Amino acid sequence: METPQNAHSEAKVPATEAVIRVVTRIAALSAEAWNTLAGDSPFVQHAFLDALETSGCVDASLGWEPVHLALFRDGRLDAAMPLYVKHHSWGEFVFDWAWADAYRREGLAYYPKLVCCVPFSPVAGPRLLARSDEDRAALLTAAQTLTRDLGASSFHVLFPSEADHAALAASPLLHRTGFQFHWHASAEGDEARYASFDDFLAALTHDKRKKIRQERKKLANLGIRFRWVEGRQSSDADWDFFYRCYADTYARHRSEPHLNRAFFATLREKAPESLLLIIAERDNVPVACSFCMKDGRRLYGRHWGALEYVPGLHFETCYQQGIEYAIAQGLQVFEGGAQGEHKLARGLTPTPTHSWHWLENAEFRKAVDRFLERETDAIGHYIDELDGPFRHPPPPSTVGKT
């Protein structure tokens, strides 16, 4: 396979009589064909990935060089992989900084590396976009070949879906487990869905239920009210306000936003059905906002910001309102984003995440394999010891178990 300086490098895949090409701009691929393979995950949809590229949020100059793999048969896109050459580890949420440091201390270069992921989005979804495990395996083989052709240190697949796991497990890549906190639309051990937010609160332990009710009452007494604004009903003013909040969050941490205003404008134009703003207002004046994405089953909490500090406002805007929206819309899961043990008290429980890794250096590969085994055991023990938010304790953790 040729290097990605050519927009369409090709590699024959004899077992399937297909051609795999490296495509450096997703706009070169049919949105309809890509979305057919991607399913309804909004983060893997052509519109989301294209918005990242056309807005300049993802670019080689920023350490995100698109080298998407596309498998064609008779000119038809039959499989694909969102893929990037990375020159840092920012925006991935599967942390390998220690691996990079170990390479540096040995006088080796960890960057560039090759990463199959959705930039800035720690959300599970399809990564090997294919109809068969044979095509998924072909994509993995092509990515490993590209890793060597580029002289990259490693190849990584972050937050793949369950449908990808069989092909990944059959590959030489190393499996890494992690966890996030997600809300699920039924009480522990109960298949019945919550009919209301009060039903959900009733399932929590007394202290956690009491705390949430007290926080909500204080916000109401301060005159704080909330609006759920769907993408199709949103206005330019709504998005201008959200972006002001979003940028302020980064400024408070002396940083710059990864996503610019043009990205959100493009996404609103091309995929409004997947967008939700939760806007907090006092006396009809907006004071805070969270940005979510959604599909037919899940709500994904992504970004937030507030123009003033109000006790409890962060938890309500980012978590309680998302859960209440999910219940009202009949959604099964609300994902609260990466990290955050504090989410446990809000009714979000630990849920396994997965990533897969290939390191070209054999000695480092063995060392990382040993590390991952210890890490998986530690995560499992940690989750089992967490004090759950529900009146009936959940079953033991399944992190790292098959």
From TrEMBL:
Coiled-coil region: none
Record Pfam families: FemAB_like
UniProt-listed PANTHER family: ACYL-COA (PTHR47017)
Protein name stated in the entry: GNAT family N-acetyltransferase
Lineage, opening ranks: Bacteria, Pseudomonadati, Pseudomonadota, Betaproteobacteria, Nitrosomonadales
